[in-house]
Amino acid sequence: RARSSAPSAPSPPCAQLAEYIGLRTLRQRLNEPDMAAYYAGLFPRDNPKNTRFAINFFTSIGLGGLTEGLRDHLKNAPKRLLEQQAAERAALPPPPPPP
User: Fold this and answer.
1) What is the pLDDT of residues 18-76, one digit of tens each?
2) Shortest CA distance to 28 belongs to which of 12, 16, 39, 13?
3) Which of 99, 94, 39 is CA-nearest to residue 67?
4) Taking phi first (over 0 means left), then psi (-120 to 50 degrees means alpha), and beta for anything else, what does residue 61 get?
5) Of all helices (H) and strands (E), which one includes residue 60?
6) Is the pTM of this model over 0.70?
7) Which run of H or E residues covers position 82?
8) If you ran DSSP here, which 8-state letter would residue 28 be given?
C-alpha cells in the first residue's frame, strides 16, 4: 500500500502562514502593538501554566520561534512577582507602634 506524502490533516493556520510568509515575518506581524489584543489568547501571559502550554504547543508544530517573547516572560516572571510584592508592601501604611 503506497503512502501519500501529503499530511493527513490540514496544518494549523499559523503553520500555513509561516510557510507562506516566513517565520520571521509572521513573528514581526504577531508582535505589532496594534494587533497584540487580537493575539493575546494565542500567547497567554496570565499564568505560567498557560504560558508553558502555548510554548509547548507552538514548539510541537514547528513554530517555537514564535514563542521567544513567552519564554522571556516566563523566565522573568519570578523577578517581576518579587518586584510587584515589594511595591505592594511599600504602599502599605506602617504598622502602629506597640503600646
Assistant:
1) 888 988 998 898 888 898 888 888 889 888 899 999 999 999 988 999 999 999 999 98
2) 39
3) 39
4) alpha
5) helix 48-60
6) no
7) helix 68-91
8) H
